[in-house]
Amino acid sequence: MSFGSILKELRKANHITQGELAEFLKVSRPTIAGYETKDKQPDFEKLIKLSEFFNVSIDYLITGDSFGKSNPNLTETNQKIYSDYELEHSLMRQFIKLSYESRVDLIELAKVLQLRDKMHEPNL
């Protein structure tokens, strides 16, 4: 799998537009499109930022492999992209960057999401 297709899959799985990713990397949207479709490659600094943004290794971004093993995460769009540990770690990293008000809002949102999950649980 190519860098461009891996980047596109990660971006879509995380519901990020090319414009949003471009803003994060401080590049133009066509630059992101070039990464995804025209075999253009980011410089090392941007590759590191992408790795941190999506919480994946640089190796994974470039080859689709993690630690020399095939990563099944990109074989189907609906499969989990992150392990539970990675999700918790990523959430905590983002949480500590928020203002107090935003943290309170996030906690309230989490409560709403818990209710939604409960409604979708199969009746046992």
From TrEMBL:
Gene3D superfamilies: lambda repressor-like DNA-binding domains. Keywords: DNA-binding. The keyword DNA-binding applies. Transmembrane segments: none annotated. It holds the Pfam family HTH_3. One of its GO terms (molecular function) is DNA binding. Residues 7-61 form the HTH cro/C1-type domain. InterPro entries: Cro/C1-type_HTH, Lambda_DNA-bd_dom_sf. PANTHER family: HTH-TYPE TRANSCRIPTIONAL REGULATOR XRE, TRACRIPTIONAL REGULATORY PROTEIN-RELATED-RELATED. This is Helix-turn-helix domain-containing protein. It comes from Diplocloster agilis.
